[in-house]
Amino acid sequence: MKEVYIREAISTDAAAILALIQELADFEREPNAVAVTEMELVQDGFGDNPQFQCFVAELNQNIVGIALFHPCYSTWKGKSWHLEDLIVTKSHRGKGIGFELLQKFISFAHNSGVRRIQWAVLDWNTPAIDFYEKHGATVFSEWKITQMTQGEMQKFIAKHHASI
Fold it and tell me: Which of 12, 52, 121, 122 could hold 70 in an S-S bridge, CB 3.0 to 4.6 Å?
C-alpha cells in the first residue's frame, strides 16, 4: 500500500465526501437518511461562512476516508470541536487510515486551543468503540444523543403554536 496523504478538504472533494457519507449511512442501516447534497457540502463547507471543516485521506489520488468536524461550545469547557464523522471506505479499513485521520483531527483540535473534543458512536458498533477506547477516548454509555428532524421540529412548532 502506498502512503496515505491526509490533507484539508477542498470544494472539489465534495462528491467523494458525499459518497463516503452515503457509505456510512448504508453501514449504519440508514441508506435513505442522507439528505445533504453535493452542492450543500460545497456551500456549507467551502463558502464564505464554513459550517464544517474536513480532512481527507487520499491514497493513489482517491479519497478513501474523511474526518468531518465543526465547532461547538461546552458550558463546562468552552470552545470545543465535534467530530461529526470519521469514515474510511470499507475496502481500506484496518490499514491505519482511520488512526491517521483521528491523529490529524486531535492534533488540529489541540493546536486550536480547545479543552474538549467530542463525537458519537453507535452502541452496536463495537469495532469503532474498541478503536476509540484503544486510542484513549472515553465512551460514555450513560449519555444518550437527542435529535429532532426538520419534520419533528415542525410538529413541535405546530403543537405548541410557536412562531417560525
Answer: 52
